[in-house]
Every structure is written in structure tokens, then in C-alpha cells.
Design a protein that fits this description.
- It is a single chain.
- This protein has 158 residues and is mainly α.
- It has one domain.
- Helix content is 61%, strand content 0%.
- The protein contains eight helices and no strands.
């Protein structure tokens, strides 16, 4: 999955307007303009399409966490670059206050199997011997499970 695909899916899931997207970046103390957001949300074959960088996507996720959970004491976390699928799942877990059992349930909704051990391997330090890279299919299934289970809830609360 590309960063732009992820951003488009989250915008649809949460029903975010352009203004809301800009506000999420602002919460993470980063200014973007409407043209950047619109270009990031375009499909690859559309004119003015622009790839969103790992750093900008990480900033968006930091803003989403602040929006959903509130601002923590101290400075805003530095955006990760490179930004992996593992980090995306971790940041959504934090933003939505999901427990491991709830994440496993999202996979079950789609009739996909994922064990507790596989899930915990995604959240380990990359230097840990049991760390496992989260593939695009796992991320796609995770986002689809979120969409299937929570879409109406998120739209009502936006």
C-alpha cells in the first residue's frame, strides 16, 4: 500500500473534510495547505497527484493521536522516517485506544486469521528476535476491519 492509499482510506473511514485534515496536521505543529492535501488524496493517474512522504504521513498520525486522545505533556513526538506498516498499526492502536483483543477481532470480522503472538510481533522493537514486519495485506485487512466495524461510529463522532 502506498502512503497516499492509506491517507485516502483514513479520510474515508473517519469522513474527514479537507479542513479537518489540515487541522490534524496543525495539531502536530505542522502547516500544510489545502492544495497539498488535495494533491495527496488524488489517484496516481490524476493531474497534480503528489506522493505524501513518510514524514508527512507520520505527522498526520501524530495529529490524529492528539485529536483522539489529547495532547501529552512535553514536546510533540518527532515524526518517524521511514514510517512502516508496523508504525501505522501502532499509531492507530494508540489513537483509537484499541486493545490487542479488539485488533484480533477486526481480523476475525474479515475471516482472516492472526494469532496473539503474530500481532505482538508487529509491536516489538525491530531489533528484537521475534519482531515481524507487517506486510501490506495485514495492513489492508486491518484497515478494512476498522472500516467494517467502526465506520458509522467514527462518522457520528467526527
Amino acid at each position: 500500500m502506498t502512503n497516499n492509499d492509506i491517507l485516502r482510506r483514513l479520510r474515508y473511514l473517519f469522513d474527514f473534510s479537507d479542513d479537518k485534515m489540515i487541522a490534524l496536521f496543525k495539531l502536530a505543529e505542522h502547516d500544510v495547505n489545502r492544495s497539498d492535501v488535495c494533491d495527496w488524496l488524488k489517484k496516481e493517474d490524476e493531474p497534480y497527484f503528489k506522493e505524501i512522504t513518510d514524514r508527512d504521513l507520520a505527522i498526520f498520525f501524530n495529529g490524529l493521536i492528539i485529536e483522539k486522545r489529547g495532547k501529552r505533556e512535553g514536546p510533540i513526538p518527532e515524526p518517524e522516517d521511514p514510517f512502516s506498516n508496523n508504525m501505522i498499526i501502532r499509531k492507530l492502536k494508540i489513537a483509537l485506544d484499541l486493545k490487542s483483543e479488539e485488533i484480533l477481532e477486526l481480523f476475525t470480522i474479515l475471516d482472516k486469521k492472526l494469532s496473539k503472538h503474530e500481532l505482538s510481533a508487529f509491536f516489538r522493537n525491530p531489533n528484537h528476535r521475534s519482531y515481524r514486519q507487517c506486510g501490506d495485506q495485514y495492513l489492508r485487512n486491518f484497515l478494512s476491519g476498522l472500516q467494517k466495524k467502526y465506520q458509522n461510529k467514527f462518522r457520528e463522532n467526527s
